[in-house]
Specification:
The chain is of the alpha/beta class. Among the domains are: 127 residues, no CATH class; 159 residues, Aspartate Aminotransferase, domain 1, CATH 3.90.1150. The chain is built from 20 helices and 17 strands. The strands form five sheets. It has a seven-stranded mixed sheet, sandwiched between helices. It has a three-stranded mixed sheet with strand order 3-4-15. Helix 9 packs antiparallel against helix 18. It is globular, with a radius of gyration of 32 Å.
């Protein structure tokens, strides 16, 4: 039984216990008349009706026993048949009340056959259906009728499905996909550390020491010394008081945002923020005020409105937007948050290990680390592992440690993942500048090459002090979903893997091919990729126009 199930069981016990302390609904209904029978809750209403029937059933024998007692006769003076009937009815009532209290919904009451034989269950389904309305809507219907089903089936038939393709080798600049050598421009292995012997050794050591899994949450039995070392080193590297490691980056966002905010608060998000941010906002119950991607005038308007909402306000943005690869104008975001008194959280999933002199992300690159209240990072990209973290003030981190449900009620990452993340962090701290230099050189080379082919490539971000910055993500904007899928397929056939981003991952008619770089791509790999694009442009120019 997991903790949630225990919680649910405890709830039932509590409800049953309070129900037992109160008179049954029928009796309350009897005393209070129609008002209580018209219970506000549907299930309660049914229960009141049900008990009402039993009360009518029980009235006769109960009255008889009572009357005879007041007449001063001993119960054993009752005729035997009448006594048996009364006891049976009493038992019936007890059984039905017990079950109905425990389950709080209509319960089938089997009847004893008139001849005193076995319980009669034949009328069970009629009794049940007579007790309540039938549910006509099927929650599985959406699996059959969703609006993308047709297009997905067509894409699969035409072998044009860009998703769930099989990687049949280790992730690297050149991979084997579905048995064929393919240039990989669709990975988040930005520093190329997934194959680094030191990271592999760190994962192997953790596996050898702690086994394959921790089989429990960090709270109970899943915290190992590697977690504590990792948290300490992350905080030191990020320059924050503390850090907390989650099993995935998704859980870090959902757990942090869903815990820090509560109904009555307001959260303001960029429309390009990652899904995990949105899910955390929804979970929190806070008022959500989204603003158009990177539009500081819209952010300001939302801050103005939020100031009147009455609760605390958190602004959450991606440091690097995961699809378009552009950098958030954090200098302006910080200034606005400070002016209005809002807290700021930055998702650095694509920034850590990719931007800034230490590799600490967009906040570092833009010189605003001190002004960002919370920074989230993931191990699933530059850190060559799986997991995520929140870095920030110790009081907040300590609170998340005891209150974030995605942290408390999910198993800790496998030791090999924690070991690999720690191994990668140590390499990034030592060699980050050099690795990141190579990564961003590669991004610049590919960006220039794709632009040179006449493609619409997302422009570098202009920095506040002049100059421009690229990220490891270099997307080619295509427009229509279908053209993007066809283009993807043509490149894939040519031995180049890219990612396709379709609406709703990007705005409508904003479909793009998302290419991403690694520090370990050689120029030869990138030239081969550019040659693929060139061949596809020559062969199918119509895919690039319109
Ligand atoms: C911006 C952003 N935030 C959060 C996440 C979630 O991280 P993880 O993959 O570690 O769950 C991702 C992953 O794709 C991301 O791109």
């Amino acid at each position: 039984m997991n903790v949630d199930q225990e919680g649910a069981a405890r709830d039932d016990v509590a409800v049953a216990a309070t129900a037992a302390e109160r008179p049954p609904a029928a009796i309350r209904g009897h005393r209070l008349g129609g008002a209580d029978g018209g219970d506000r809750h549907g299930a309660g209403g049914q229960a009141a009706g049900r008990h009402h029937c039993h009360r009518a059933d029980l009235a006769a024998p109960g009255d008889q026993i009572g009357r005879r007692a007041t007449l001063g006769k001993r119960p054993d003076a009752l005729p035997a048949g009448l006594l048996v009937a009364a006891v049976e009815r009493l038992l019936d009532r007890l059984r039905v009340n017990h079950l109905s209290r425990a389950h709080r919904w209509p319960v089938y009451a089997p009847r004893r056959r008139r001849d005193g034989g076995k319980w009669d269950t034949a009328g069970m389904s009629e009794q049940l259906s007579a007790q309540g309305p039938r549910i006509e809507s099927d929650v599985f219907a959406k699996a059959r009728n969703h609006d993308r089903r047709e297009i997905l089936e067509l894409a699969e038939k035409a072998d044009m499905m860009p998703y769930f393709r099989l990687l049949t080798s280790a992730a690297g600049p050149v991979v084997e996909m579905e048995g064929r050598e393919t240039i990989m421009l669709g990975s988040n292995n930005y520093l190329g550390l997934t194959g680094d012997p030191r990271v592999k050794a760190a994962a192997r050591d953790a596996l050898d020491t702690y086994g394959t899994a921790l089989t429990g949450s960090r709270l109970l039995n899943g915290t190992i010394p590697l977690h504590l070392e990792l948290e300490e080193e992350l905080a030191d590297w990020m320059g924050t008081e503390a850090a907390l490691v989650f099993t995935t980056g998704y859980q870090a966002n959902v757990g942090c945002i869903g815990t820090i905010l509560q109904p009555g608060d307001t959260v303001i998000c960029d429309s390009g923020d990652h899904a995990s941010i949105l899910d955390g906002c929804r979970l929190s119950g806070a008022k959500l005020r989204p603003f158009r991607h990177n539009r500081m005038d819209k952010l300001e308007r939302m801050l103005e409105r939020a100031a009147g909402d009455g609760g605390g306000v958190l602004v959450v943005v991606d440091g690097v937007f995961s699809m378009e690869g552009d950098i958030c104008p954090l200098t302006e975001v910080v200034a606005l948050c400070e002016r209005y008194g809002a807290r700021l959280m930055v998702d650095e999933a694509h920034g850590v290990g990719a931007l800034g002199a230490r590799g600490a992300g967009a906040s570092e690159l833009l010189g605003v680390e001190e002004s960002v209240d919370l920074r989230m990072g993931t191990f699933s990209k530059s850190f060559a592992s799986c997991g995520g973290f929140i870095a920030g003030p110790a009081e907040v981190i300590d609170y998340l440690r005891i209150a974030a449900r995605s942290f408390l009620f999910s198993a800790a990452a496998v030791p090999a993942a924690v070991g690999a993340a720690l191994g990668a962090l140590r390499i990034i701290r030592e060699e980050g500048p050099e690795l990141i230099g190579r990564l961003l050189d590669n991004a610049a080379y590919l960006h220039a090459g794709l632009t040179g082919l006449g493609l619409r490539v997302v422009a570098p971000t202009m920095l506040p002090g002049g100059g421009e910055a690229l990220t490891p993500i270099v997307p080619v904007i295509v427009g229509e979903d279908v053209r993007a899928a066809m283009l993807w397929k043509a490149l894939y056939e040519d031995g180049l893997y890219t990612n396709v981003a379709l609406h709703p991952a990007v705005p409508p008619a904003g479909a793009l091919l998302r290419t991403s770089l690694m520090a370990t791509h050689e120029r030869e790999h990138l030239d081969r990729a550019l040659a693929s694009f060139e061949r596809v442009i020559d062969h199918s120019p119509e895919l690039f126009t319109g």
